[in-house]
UniProtKB/TrEMBL annotation:
It catalyses: L-arginyl-[protein] + 2 S-adenosyl-L-methionine = N(omega),N(omega)'-dimethyl-L-arginyl-[protein] + 2 S-adenosyl-L-homocysteine + 2 H(+). Arginine methyltransferase involved in the assembly or stability of mitochondrial NADH:ubiquinone oxidoreductase complex (complex I). Acts by mediating symmetric dimethylation of 'Arg-118' of NDUFS2 after it assembles into the complex I, stabilizing the early intermediate complex. It is found in: Mitochondrion. The gene is Ndufaf7. The lineage of its organism: Eukaryota, Metazoa, Chordata, Craniata, Vertebrata. This is Protein arginine methyltransferase NDUFAF7. Keywords: Methyltransferase, Mitochondrion, Transferase, Transit peptide.
Length: 372
């Protein structure tokens, strides 16, 4: 909701907020994602320009860590024209992002421009803010959505003896100011449109907005080139009832005090894959601990440990590594998923195309990183 929604009113990402995310836990997370983009940019023949487009950047920490990598690898990127495009609905979070990334040096754009704010990053890269992915100008782009899709609204459905019914929110007639879940008495337009005919589960959550956004990303990648990296907790079309709320890092009843708690549902990657079908190839979902291991997190940890002499920093590094990688913590429940142009994954068959050059390197993260 533009006026009463959680992200427009509160949006408490981070230690002092309602939930903590991987980029807020360790800078290594964002650095490895930065390396993923560089490695894809190289694999795709080092195009002369690219846009980094992040959906729901939170506090801006992930972009900050990625831009640090871009700066460290400035000699590699020297001939490339890079710009950053942030899609953010929360006025409060966009202010926090502006301070984090530009030191507060931003100005609002005139009404007729598609971006509502712009500035220059501390590392000298132009940054633009938008409310909708459709406002981002076309062009070769690398997209990023970390803990974005789980924040979008879902429909819930229950299989009954009489067929699929939608789970709706109602005002409890018995208790004042109390909401309750009810089942629709008959089918609804959503039960007719969003349940796949081959569905085998009894309870299903569908996020049509995520489907529409993935279709848009896939069309843009098909037309202008680039890639998208999606990371979130989720499943591959197997889980059922995952809708839950968080407030002050504790589980919170989703129906109580609406607009004051983070509401979230696991991302159904099988649905996202279906939405990209035909336009782009997809990779994953792969578990976060496998993705980060493939990206070289162990080596990065060793280097940071060697370079830090005080015990507190070393303990912090080990603790954050454990949070990201431990299967009981974030290692197993978070997944990585990518959209890539079909030709990126096509393995040229020498017999069919004798003129084809050496095959493209495997996509990092989903395979071991091979940086020359
Ligand atoms: N990626 C960050 C933040 C995740 S929280 C991290 O991992 O730390 C979700 C983010 O998506 C917030 O920045 C929130 O304001 C933004 N958001 C939520 N709904 C949105 C929408 N419909 N359009 C654009 N941004 C949205």
């Amino acid at each position: 909701s533009p006026s009463q929604g959680y992200y427009t009113r509160r949006g408490g990402v981070g230690e002092s907020g309602d939930f903590i995310t991987s980029p807020e836990i360790s800078q290594v997370f964002g650095e490895l994602i930065g390396i993923w983009y560089i490695s894809e940019w190289m694999a795709m023949g080092k195009p002369s320009t690219f846009q980094l487009v992040e959906l729901g950047p939170g506090r801006g920490t992930l972009t900050e860590d990625i831009l640090r990598v871009f700066k460290q690898l400035a000699s590699v990127l020297s001939k490339c024209d890079v710009s950053v495009h942030l899609v953010e609905v929360s006025p409060k979070l966009s202010e926090i992002q502006a301070v984090m990334l530009t030191g507060g040096k931003v100005h609002p754009s005139p009404e007729d421009e598609s971006a509502y704010m712009k500035g220059i990053s501390k590392t000298g890269i132009p940054i633009f803010w938008y409310r909708d992915i459709q406002d981002v100008p076309p062009g070769y782009s690398f997209y990023l959505a970390h803990e974005f899709f789980d924040a979008l609204p879902i429909h819930k459905f229950q299989r009954t003896e009489k067929g699929w019914r939608e789970v709706l929110v109602d005002i409890d007639p018995e208790v004042p100011d109390q909401l309750r879940f009810v089942l629709s008495p008959s089918g609804t337009p959503a039960t007719q449109n969003f349940i796949q005919p081959e569905e085998t589960r009894d309870h299903v959550e569908v996020c049509p907005e995520a489907g529409v956004i993935v279709q848009r990303l896939a069309s843009r990648i098909e037309k202008d080139g680039g890639a998208a990296l999606v990371a979130d907790y989720g499943h591959d079309g197997t889980k059922t009832d995952t809708f839950r709320g968080f407030r002050n890092h504790k589980l919170h009843d989703v129906l109580s005090a609406p607009g004051t708690a983070d509401l979230t549902a696991d991302v159904d990657f099988s649905y996202l894959r279906k939405m990209a079908q035909g336009k782009t190839a997809t990779l994953g979902p792969i578990k976060q601990r496998e993705f980060l291991k493939n990206m070289g997190i162990d080596l990065r940890l060793q280097v940071l440990l060697q370079n830090s002499s005080d015990t507190a920093t070393r303990e912090q590094l080990l603790h954050s590594y454990d949070m990201l990688m431990n299967p009981e913590k974030m290692g197993d429940c978070f997944n990585f998923f990518a959209l890539l142009p079909h030709h990126r994954l096509a393995h040229p068959d020498k017999k069919d195309k004798p003129e084809s050059k050496s095959p493209l390197p495997p996509v990092a993260g989903f395979n071991e990183l091979l940086l020359k």
